[in-house]
Design goal:
Largest sheet: none
Strand content: under 5%
Distance between the termini: 32 Å
Number of helices: 14
Radius of gyration: 22 Å
Length: about 425
């Protein structure tokens, strides 16, 4: 009887792909800037455009976040998730060690962390969606990189095509669009959500989070699951080519991503702005749906251009992206930390700053918070191998406790 291959273990820091860590850190900053207004407002407004009621620096910062950040950085993070999966799978195969059981527990652990985040901390969670997509990704692990790319593109572009068809259908006479009654209903729901966050205790806020999860998040999975899984597969397929591990060999492809991705993404963003710069889910219309869909589609070529640009810069000797790497290595701890700090500061059961900060102040606070997280992550990783949640996640995934202290602080060789 042939023994099962041993499961693989967490890799030493020296073997990590620093480019992936740096890109995760950059993505984490973008996600925070995109989310900060939703920490301080109704979650239904997360996908909406530039707020026309704002003025001065508030307006221009809102415009910057919507144009340059929104939909670009969650797309980037999704691609990186798939790339990380492919790297883990290849390393396990090269070592002749088991992968399926570890990644299954890893996905179950991510699902548990995501549910805790969504139900008890902040309702705008993305981790549950990622975990559900990761289960499918695991089931497709035997596929080739080309098959991953084809299915990923089909899922992502197929979902975009469906949304475009919905927008087209809304232009047909007789097809219902949102009316004044729908707008009034949406406004009332948002006012009720704001009242809970601004005046409710922790238990009232938790009830609101649960309602949002079961009424809105789960309903949104019909779009978000194929989009996220599609991006995972695209990222995994690209990583299978060696794009991240050996960017020098793929310079032509990387330059192509930059040369094509930047203008295509910029063009789609500009067209979406020309159609509607302030699309709203509160009023369902053809122009709003079309503008939001094109804006979302712009995220993929721009995210690919950003990945390629950072890889080319680092291959050329640039060191500044590495400043984001420690935050990227602790992305899970930092992501949940952002939610904990923001909700504690803004909600009534915390510092109760709800409604007291301008958009400019919220962005400034987000930048300061991320700068502190970068510094704290750098300090932490001088002493420890993993962030606190990363250690817990790995302990569950590998079914044993990995060493927490770094080799340096334990006074042993880095080759341990």
């Amino acid at each position: 009887m042939i023994a099962a291959p041993p499961e693989f273990a967490p890799i030493p820091a020296r073997e990590r792909l620093l480019a992936l860590d740096a890109l995760r850190g950059i993505a984490l900053l973008g996600i925070l800037l995109s989310n900060v207004a939703s920490f301080a407002g109704p979650l239904a407004e997360l996908s909406e455009g530039i707020d026309p009621k704002l003025s001065g620096s508030d307006y221009w910062l809102s415009a910057f976040v919507y144009v340059a950040i929104r939909n670009k950085f969650w797309t980037l993070f999704s691609l990186l998730f798939g790339m990380g999966f492919a790297v883990m799978l290849e390393r396990a195969r090269d070592a002749g060690r088991g992968f399926g059981a570890v990644y299954l527990r890893r996905s179950i652990g991510l699902l548990a962390i995501g549910l805790i985040h969504a139900w008890l901390i902040w309702a705008g969670d993305i981790l549950v969606t990622y975990a559900l997509s990761a289960f499918v990704l695991l089931a497709l692990r035997s596929w080739s990189g080309a098959s991953w790319l084809k299915l990923g593109a089909a899922l992502y572009l197929g979902t975009i095509a469906y949304l475009l068809l919905v927008a087209a259908a809304l232009t047909v006479p007789g097809v219902a669009q949102g009316d004044a009654a729908d707008l009034a209903r949406a406004q009332a729901e948002r006012a009720a959500e704001v009242a809970v966050y601004a005046h409710g205790d922790y238990f009232a806020v938790t009830g609101q989070r649960l309602r949002f999860f079961f009424e809105s998040t789960t309903r949104g999975w019909i779009m978000m699951l194929p989009l996220s899984l599609g991006l995972f597969l695209i990222g995994a397929g690209l990583a299978r080519t060696g794009l991240v591990a050996d960017p020098r060999r793929h310079r032509a492809l990387l330059r192509g991503f930059v040369r094509i991705g930047l203008p295509v993404g910029a063009m789609l963003t500009v067209v979406s702005l020309m159609i509607d710069s302030a699309p709203s889910l509160a009023l369902f219309s053809a122009s709003s749906m079309l503008a939001q869909t094109l804006h979302m589609l712009a995220g993929l070529p721009l995210a690919l251009a950003l990945i390629a640009g950072v890889l080319l810069l680092m291959q050329g000797g640039a060191r500044w992206p590495l400043r984001f790497a420690p935050a990227g290595r602790m992305a899970l701890s930092n992501y949940l930390g952002q939610s904990l700090i923001a909700t504690w500061a803004l909600y009534h059961h915390g510092l109760n700053l709800w409604g007291r900060l301008s958009y400019t102040e919220l962005i400034a606070a987000a930048v300061v918070l991320f700068a502190l997280q970068m510094a704290a992550s750098t300090w932490w990783l001088r002493h420890f191998r993993f962030g606190p949640l990363e250690w817990l996640w790995r302990a569950f995934a590998y079914w044993r406790r990995p060493a927490m202290r770094s080799a340096f602080t334990r006074g042993v060789s880095s080759e341990e």
